[in-house]
């Protein structure tokens, strides 16, 4: 059987078009004409022997074949970019210290560390999973070079790389024990203070006139998940990386206030950027793009 080699430029145009919502937007992002992008899509359809996209109103919708190819295309492009980075910077040496918010420790950090180590085996990387306040303090004191942290609106030079919805959480296997109509204060499960999301939960409840009490306090996410799953109270978090033991609670049904989105930022120490930290920051952005829904990512 004749082997088909998919065109990398065409794959990049295909992925960019889907993420942007149109191939006209992809043309702008990639600096090419719309006709050139359309020709690359046609080339991919010829190579794969299947239709990849169809019009849906003013936007694009993937066919079944397109959904399959999109997943592979992202992985192929990531590996391509990783290989190019490794070849172009084979002598990159030094060390870099990364802090990451604990919500992303088990999901994003392994991917980031693995990619960076393969691309730059001579660079020593130190990783730290921590609470938001701790990460910001270590960035300010120069103990970390980069940190992935929630946006608390205190850093003027933070790079926002995503906006995640906030949600109320309860146990997965049963209904939460609290209802607004019951007259009892809402039991909250929260992390130890200082905690940005704990403050957000209390402020949102206060603004809506919902009485609350702290029912369980944990120093880590593991304890917060366990208490929420046990039905000890309702927690506030983003829907990213939730364990199977908890679920999102419908706000309206339980009389809970609506919630805003929460920015995710990349913080840098006051030191001048170097090639090592610049490459690591690029890998962090790509890892988040791989794991987070497009709607949560910044729009071009």
TrEMBL record:
Residue ranges of domain HTH lysR-type in the record: 6-63
Superkingdom of the source species: Bacteria
Pfam families: HTH_1, LysR_substrate
Keyword Transcription listed: yes
UniProt family annotation: Belongs to the LysR transcriptional regulatory family.
Keywords noted in UniProt: DNA-binding, Transcription, Transcription regulation
Originating species: Ciceribacter lividus
Family matches, as InterPro entries: LTTR, LysR_HTH_N, LysR_subst-bd, WH-like_DNA-bd_sf, WH_DNA-bd_sf
PANTHER family: HTH-TYPE TRANSCRIPTIONAL REGULATOR LRHA-RELATED (PTHR30579:SF7), TRANSCRIPTIONAL REGULATOR (PTHR30579)
Protein name per the record: DNA-binding transcriptional LysR family regulator
One GO MF term: DNA-binding transcription factor activity
């Amino acid at each position: 059987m004749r082997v088909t080699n998919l065109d990398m430029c065409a794959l990049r145009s295909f992925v960019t078009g889907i993420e942007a919502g149109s191939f006209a937007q992809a043309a702008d992002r990639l600096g090419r004409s719309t006709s050139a992008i359309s020709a690359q899509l046609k080339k991919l359809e010829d190579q794969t022997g299947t239709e990849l996209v169809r019009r849906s109103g003013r936007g694009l919708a993937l066919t079944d074949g397109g959904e399959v190819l999109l997943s592979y295309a992202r992985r192929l492009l990531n590996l391509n970019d990783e290989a190019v980075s490794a070849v172009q910077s084979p002598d990159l040496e030094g060390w870099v210290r990364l802090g990451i918010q604990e919500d992303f420790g088990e999901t994003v950090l392994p991917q980031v560390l693995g990619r960076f180590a393969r691309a730059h085996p001579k660079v020593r990387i130190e990783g730290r999973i921590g609470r938001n306040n701790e990460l910001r303090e270590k960035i300010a004191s120069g103990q970390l070079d980069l940190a992935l942290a929630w946006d608390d609106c205190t850093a003027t030079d933070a790079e926002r790389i995503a906006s995640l919805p906030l949600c109320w959480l309860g146990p997965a296997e049963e209904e939460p024990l609290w209802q607004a109509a019951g007259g009892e204060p809402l039991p909250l499960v929260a992390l130890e203070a200082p905690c940005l999301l704990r403050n957000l939960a209390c402020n949102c409840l206060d603004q809506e006139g919902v009485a609350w009490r702290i029912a369980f306090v944990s120093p880590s996410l593991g304890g917060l998940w366990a208490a929420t799953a046990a039905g000890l109270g309702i927690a506030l978090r983003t829907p990213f990386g939730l364990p199977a033991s908890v679920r999102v609670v419908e706000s309206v049904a339980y009389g809970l206030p609506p919630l805003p989105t929460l920015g995710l930022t990349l913080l840098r120490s006051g030191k001048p950027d170097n090639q090592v930290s610049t490459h690591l920051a690029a890998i962090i952005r790509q890892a988040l793009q791989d794991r987070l829904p497009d709607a949560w990512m910044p729009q071009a």
